[in-house]
Specification:
The chain is α/β, with parallel strands linked by helices. It has nine helices and eight strands. Helix 8 links the parallel strand 5 and strand 6. The longest helix is centred in the last third of the chain and has 65 residues.
Length: 299
């Protein structure tokens, strides 16, 4: 009878055994809730990644649609070839992909550069030759490569006049890409008015352009008139595409990886806690069985 009473005390609700089981259950519930919240965060990040993927795909599709067909085809094929050959580090992207332009200057920059925005920047003339050969032999369209090792940046003196700004001071780009920026925009300034464009072109022999896209060449040829702003979408689309990809790479991807790792760790901890509680329940069940046997023996 004394043994029975001792076992009943050990298995009662106020016993150490019961306290251990309650503690294990509470830890399990807290871990389960933490894992639920982590999975919720993961799902939100997955949705955000999907949104950014769709935004990037839409921008890329619209951007591709502004290119002539042969140029679009050649760029797509060259990118596939570069990935297959493992030379992505030598094929550095188009000029448009590497430059950043303030919105107020987007029309002027796009009008000034024209199709040169899609010049493909490459490390040197060796890789440029391989690309040109690939496109020509495969009849893959047309492409313009800019080998960075062949560009000599010419130092220019720009007029110090109010309302006049060199486009090379407007277009931001990584240091390695600046020679390509100078090659396309080095001879062009943006002016606050068409009259100022005419004066600059006559006095300094530079091409000049207004913020609305009206141009005066260094030879005095004027072109312009009404420009539909909706035609000039390349710079804006490239900026949206860049921001979407940066958000994916720099924000969503690392946060998602962290959330997945934490959710996985919480899942493993939850399984460990389940096993610990099952062990306590089994031990409690075994002890109850012994108590029932002891009771039966006394009766």
């Amino acid at each position: 009878r004394a043994r029975r009473q001792a076992m009943e005390q050990q298995l009662g609700e106020g016993s150490a055994e019961a306290a251990k089981l309650r503690s294990a259950t509470e830890r399990l519930e807290r871990c389960s809730e933490r894992r639920r919240l982590l999975l919720q965060d993961k799902e939100q990040l997955l949705r955000r990644r999907g949104e950014l993927d769709r935004e990037a795909a839409t921008c890329q599709s619209r951007l591709d649609g502004t290119m002539p067909g042969p140029q679009r085809q050649a760029l797509a094929e060259v990118r596939k070839w570069a990935a297959a050959q493992g030379v992505q580090g030598e094929v550095l992207g188009t000029l448009l992909e590497v430059m950043v332009v303030p919105p107020d200057y987007a029309i002027a920059v796009e009008a000034a550069a024209g199709s040169a925005l899609f010049n493909l920047l490459v490390k040197d003339d060796t890789i440029a030759g391989r690309i040109i050969s690939l496109v020509r032999k495969g009849s893959l369209g047309s492409i313009v490569c800019t080998p960075l090792n062949r560009i000599a940046v010419r130092q220019r003196q720009y007029p110090q006049m109010s309302g006049v700004k060199p486009l090379v001071d407007v277009v931001a780009a990584p240091e390695w890409a600046k020679p390509a920026v100078h090659q396309v925009f080095g001879k062009i300034v943006v002016c606050s008015s068409l009259e100022l464009c005419d004066e600059v072109s006559r006095r300094h022999g530079l091409d000049a352009i207004t913020l609305d896209g009206d141009k005066v060449s260094g030879r005095g040829v004027l072109s312009g008139g009404y420009q539909d702003p909706t035609r000039f979408v390349r710079v804006g689309l490239a900026d949206k595409l860049r921001r979407a990809r940066e958000a994916l790479r720099q924000d969503v991807a690392p946060r998602l990886a962290e959330a997945e790792a934490r959710a996985r760790d919480a899942g493993e901890e939850l399984e460990t806690l389940h096993e610990a509680r099952r062990a306590l329940q089994e031990e409690r069940g075994r002890r109850r069985g012994e108590l029932q046997q002891a009771v039966a023996a006394l009766e």
